[in-house]
Design a protein that fits this description.
Helix content: 10-25%
Radius of gyration: 16 Å
Strand order of the largest sheet: 5-6-7-4-8-11-10-9
Number of domains: 1
Distance between the termini: 28 Å
CATH architecture: Roll
Number of strands: 15
């Protein structure tokens, strides 16, 4: 199937430090790779990564673990109409939204999540939706400035959001310049979309 994302490579200035942070905070060593690169990006990078948990206690456990490991609080964990969530910025600069749609805990609290989701901030939602649909991603939900694609069990989720709306949701300014500093590894192979997000085959994923 073409609608799968296996992992990401993040451009970082210190590979060892990034590995330590993500393993300590989230236990994500199997999903993330790191590539040494100079700091050449300012402001919003045009995407967010999300950890979707099953209950509020797990959100808070993940959030606290990230802050303890060195992340910066962007939006504290809070309740809203849709659930519970907060946003942190990792030491490498990536924004992580940690959230759940559940309103209360129904099991013992654990530092655990169910899904990882990549949200891309795009200029033209309709065109980007067509780009990914043409490459095998099936739309699950689409309304206004947001698109959510179906993904098989075990695959990282993919969504599209108008860039300014995504930045507002994350609690940051939409202004930014330079590289996205992320490469997506999935079944669609080596492509670059209209917003400059680069994809590579899964076999290309490696820490360097």
């Amino acid at each position: 199937m073409n609608n799968t994302i296996d992992s990401f490579t993040l451009d970082v200035t210190d590979v060892a430090a990034a590995q330590t942070f993500y393993e300590t905070a989230f236990g994500l060593s199997e999903r993330l790779r790191f590539r040494l690169a100079d700091a050449g990006t300012s402001g919003f990078r045009g995407y967010t990564l999300s950890l979707v948990a099953s209950q509020p206690g797990n959100v808070r456990a993940l959030f606290d673990a990230a802050v303890t490991a060195g992340a910066t609080v962007v939006k504290p964990v809070s309740k809203s109409l849709w659930g519970v969530g907060g946003v942190v910025q990792a030491p490498d600069g990536a924004l992580w939204n940690i959230a759940t749609s559940a309103k209360k805990d129904t099991a013992p609290v654990a530092k655990a999540f169910d899904h990882v989701v990549l949200l891309l901030g795009v200029d033209d939602v309709r065109a980007s939706r067509a780009f990914y649909a043409d490459r095998g991603f099936r739309v699950r939900k689409s309304f206004g400035s947001y698109v959510d694609f179906e993904t098989p069990a075990g695959s990282i989720g993919l969504g599209l959001y108008k860039r300014a709306a995504l930045a507002k949701s994350a609690g940051v300014s939409p202004d930014g310049s330079g590289s996205h500093r992320i490469t997506v590894h999935g079944a669609i192979g080596a492509v670059v979309d209209a917003d400059g997000f680069a994809w590579e085959p899964v076999t290309a994923a490696a820490n360097t």
